[in-house]
Amino acid sequence: MNDKVAVVTGGSAGIGEAACRALAADGWIVYVAARRLERCEAIAAEIGGVALELDVTDQASVEKLAELSRVDLLVNNAGGAKELDYLRDADADDWDWMYQTNVLGTMRVTKALYPQLKAAKGLVINIGSIAGTDAYKGGSGYNAAKHGLRGLTRAFRREEAPDIRVCEIDPGRVKTDFSMNRFNGDAERAAAVYEGKLNLTADDIAEAIRWVASLPPHVNIDVLNIMPADQAER
């Protein structure tokens, strides 16, 4: 890879961790970036990467990214959902967190690393969701955030083509800690999301990230939807 550098946000677990491992196996120098520094350090030690403490909702934390001298690939993976409330029961704090993390966090990190990405004619991969192309009951807050991410991604692609490539990967049902985090550690509710269904794994999405990142610089994958075989409707 000629010492090409990748930054993966939300790299301490789930899709982010799997992406760090897949990219490192392909020869990338990977910055494992997340709030849990000790976990990032453990992963980085295993893959020969670099740990980076990062909270995408904190501008001061994000500004430290300016110290990186080179970035060829940015994977904006940090995100998540809070609860499964109908709009009539919406919690404004949950909505604010989802928007701060999924949308403004992506904006902050991408803006902070823009000079490096521009210089490298790099690639940005935003991890969206099929929740950003359709909606479901109780998902209005998360749907709104992921629809926002899709709008951000499409605009950025048009603004920077052909100098920076921009891709959105939209997974369907992936069995990770996503639902545990969504339901504040309620294991029973989280397990019910996946029980009796085919489920993607974090490695499945990481393989897609690795593939997109491996393509030659004249190729841009705009949007990639990935769902388990039994999830035919969004």
Automatic annotation (TrEMBL):
InterPro entries: NAD(P)-bd_dom_sf, Sc_DH/Rdtase_CS, SDR_fam
Key word Endoplasmic reticulum present: no
UniProt superkingdom: Bacteria
Protein keywords: Oxidoreductase
First and last residue of the signal peptide: none
Pfam families, sorted: adh_short
Keyword Oxidoreductase attached: yes
Protein family: Belongs to the short-chain dehydrogenases/reductases (SDR) family.
PANTHER family cross-referenced by the UniProt entry: ALCOHOL DEHYDROGENASE
Record-given protein name: SDR family oxidoreductase
Species name: Corynebacterium stercoris
